[in-house]
Amino acid sequence: MEVSSPACMWFTSQTQSNIFSNYHIAWLNSNQEANSDERKSNKTALRGCLDVNCQLGEGAQGSIYLMTYGESEKFALKVCRKKTSLKCARNYSIQNSFKAIEILNEVKILDSLNHPFIIEFFEKFETENYNSFLLEFCQGGDLLPYMHPLIYTVYHLQKVNKQERKFSESSVKFYVSCLALALDYIHSKGFVYRDLKPENVLLDKNGYPKICDFGLSIPQSDLNFKTCRRRCGIKEYFSQKLSNEKFMEKRDDLSHECIEFISQLLSKDRNNRLGKNGIKDFIVHPWLEDIDFKELEHQNSEPPYPIEGVSPSETHFFCEEYTQKMLDHQLVQEIS
């Protein structure tokens, strides 16, 4: 699990040539047919057979839409305008080049991964104005609303017990263990995931977490002094090593093993940091001794928040600001 400090995606004219090096662009645009043997190969072309239901969310790269195939099969479609997509990266345009490289990264990396706790990528579409890619639809939405009482109200998550509006230790153990397995797999495939936060963890219909948004991820071969010193993400999720802030006050609502786990995970000394030996540091840690990692990876454990059967609709766990938004007619015509 041990990787170098995360990098940031802000650029100067001096560093841009290093980031958009010929090697990096060549890697991003290499033949996507050379996928991992683990990736499922029984997917068929779906473009032209999809109906747009509603918008699910919006991010820096583009918007996410709920799509229906046939009578009931659901997908999520990430839609990015071309002006912030592939052409910008190839032309080395400074404006929007941040988003362009993230989109290229995400498509390339997701196409190489296949893990139960990573969102599944199906195919990429290209139209006159948009580059889009089809993803697994995770009905439970992202993890953040389950952690924050105020956001619960906005998202109307009434079905979950109000007393459970912050995670119990057992719930945290479940999600930490799932994410540790996913990150270990990502590292084993030669990539570094640099944007882990609740908003980038989705819950599928069974309540299992799925890591998404690989825009800031890079191949381990691209790690160097400059990329390791560059900050990624937002300040709220910087590690103690980067923020130099005290990560937690004394807590009497956490077990000793839990506090020890957090302290070791955020250790400034990489030789003592939890994860330096990979996933086995987590498997043998006293705080996680009751977790059966093999059963968990096979999804034989009970998630804290099962989704299917709890929500009255597919969009119940998504913000109405987006799900009730009027759809752009031109966009619908192009992507469906």
From TrEMBL:
The keyword Secreted does not apply. Pfam families: Pkinase. InterPro entries: Kinase-like_dom_sf (IPR011009), Prot_kinase_dom (IPR000719), Ser/Thr_kinase_AS (IPR008271). SMART domains: S_TKc. Residues 50-336 form the Protein kinase domain. It comes from the Eukaryota. It comes from Euplotes crassus. This is Protein kinase domain-containing protein. One of its GO terms (molecular function) is ATP binding. Keywords: ATP-binding, Kinase, Nucleotide-binding, Serine/threonine-protein kinase, Transferase. SUPFAM superfamilies: Protein kinase-like (PK-like) (SSF56112). The keyword Membrane does not apply.
